[in-house]
Structure formats: structure tokens, C-alpha cells
Automatic annotation (TrEMBL):
Source domain of life: Archaea
Keyword Transmembrane attached: yes
UniProt keyword annotation of Transmembrane present: yes
Name this protein carries in UniProt: SPW repeat protein
Domain SPW repeat-containing integral membrane: 21-122
Taxon lineage: Archaea, Methanobacteriati, Methanobacteriota, Stenosarchaea group, Halobacteria
């Protein structure tokens, strides 16, 4: 049957909306990246990188939060995308030379937010994949 594995046979694939907090944190990390780009002095490359990365994290986190709040499984592809965006965010200070800023704030902010998004996105994708398999076996 080609039905949605999240709702096949009336089975609740994600009771209680498990994983919403992970998606919310990823979205908040994106919001923080946008805010810090506006609030702090960055080079033009850093600024646009942080705004675009922040918007992507906000969109991915918001999308998976919406799915999980609707008691559906989080999207594995969206979670993996968050992990990849986090990986880029860890590498981007070396590409854009964020260590050259006055306090190095932009460098450490990008590295720490990137590591957080990488870990949360990878964990979310891993758990989503295992839950999807469990749902497919019981449905």
C-alpha cells in the first residue's frame, strides 16, 4: 500500500510529538544566527553566510517541528540537511576568515552553533530513521 507511513492503518507514528524539542532548538539556532548577523559587526561574506544559514536552519527546524507537533515522524532528509548545514557552519569561519574579527566572537559563534546543529540534526535523522523502521514493522 502506498500510504503515508506516518498514518498507515490509523497507527499513531509519533505519539506525543516526540522530538519536537530537537526541531525547536534547531529553529532557534537559526533565529540566533540571523539575529547575531544583524547585531554584531561582520564582514559582508560572514553576514550573508550567517543570514542564509540561519534562514535555512529556521526553515528546517520549523518544518520538522510542525510535522512532529502533528504527531507525525520528523522528516529524515530535513534533519540530515540540518546536520550538513551545521557542518558547513563549522567550516565557514575558515573560509570567510571570521577569526580576523575583533573578539573572535563570530568565529566561535559559528563553530559552536554549527557543532550544535550538526549533532542535533544527525541525532534527529538517526532517531527518525529507527522510528520509521519500527513504524513500518508494526503497521
Amino acid at each position: 500500500m502506498g500510504g503515508d507511513p506516518d498514518t498507515t492503518g490509523g497507527y499513531d507514528a509519533n505519539p506525543g510529538g516526540r522530538g519536537k524539542w530537537i526541531s525547536a532548538i534547531i529553529g532557534l539556532l537559526g533565529l540566533w544566527m540571523i539575529l547575531q548577523a544583524v547585531l554584531f559587526e561582520l564582514t559582508p561574506g560572514q553576514f550573508w553566510n550567517d543570514v542564509i544559514v540561519g534562514a535555512l536552519l529556521l526553515a528546517v527546524g520549523g518544518y520538522n517541528y510542525y510535522r512532529r507537533a502533528d504527531e507525525r515522524l520528523g522528516n529524515i532528509g530535513a534533519a540530515a540537511l540540518a546536520a550538513l548545514i551545521g557542518l558547513w557552519l563549522v567550516a565557514s569561519p575558515f573560509v570567510f576568515g571570521a577569526g580576523d574579527t575583533a573578539s573572535g566572537f563570530a568565529f566561535w559563534n559559528d563553530v559552536l552553533v554549527g557543532l550544535s546543529a550538526l549533532v542535533l540534526g544527525a541525532y534527529s535523522a538517526y532517531k527518525g530513521r529507527s522510528r520509521r523502521r519500527a513504524t513500518a514493522r508494526t503497521a
